[in-house]
Transthyretin-like protein 5
Amino acid sequence: MKTWLFVIALPLVCGLPSLKIGRLQSAAVKGVLICNGKPAVGVKVKLYDDDRGIDLDDLMDEGITDAQGRFQLSGHETEITNIDPKLNVYHDCNDENTPCLKKFSIMIPDSFITEGEKPKKVFDAGTLNLAGKFSGETRDCLN
């Protein structure tokens, strides 16, 4: 009996994230990345909804910095609770010869989460100098 219950329940539990139950929420972030005083061109940036637990983070948007090191991302996700948007930055400033990219994250404050598909506010991450070390910085070979 327990085996049958498991066989029936497993597809239901695994399928829950795709049901999209909850509120449609959005967030946006912009900023400028520099490396040693020069624009950090072509740096990969991603906007995620940070899901804790066994659920994988939801990618909301991704892009690269332009010729001036600027980026702007926006996206939306449906969640029962508030989304937890975060910006991931993947770079090799002062680190070109080491395998994998440096990665750090910036959590976007709840006050920049809006209802609906289009964000009403944009979080300005400011100008970030990638030559420094960021809190929680790791290496990412997959990004």
Q: What stands out?
A: Strands lie at 23-35, 38-39, 44-49, 58-64, 70-79, 85-91, 101-107, 114-115, 123-129, 138-140. The chain has one domain: 23-132. The domain at 23-132 is CATH 2.60.40.3330 (Immunoglobulin-like). Confidence is low (pLDDT under 50) at residues 9-15.
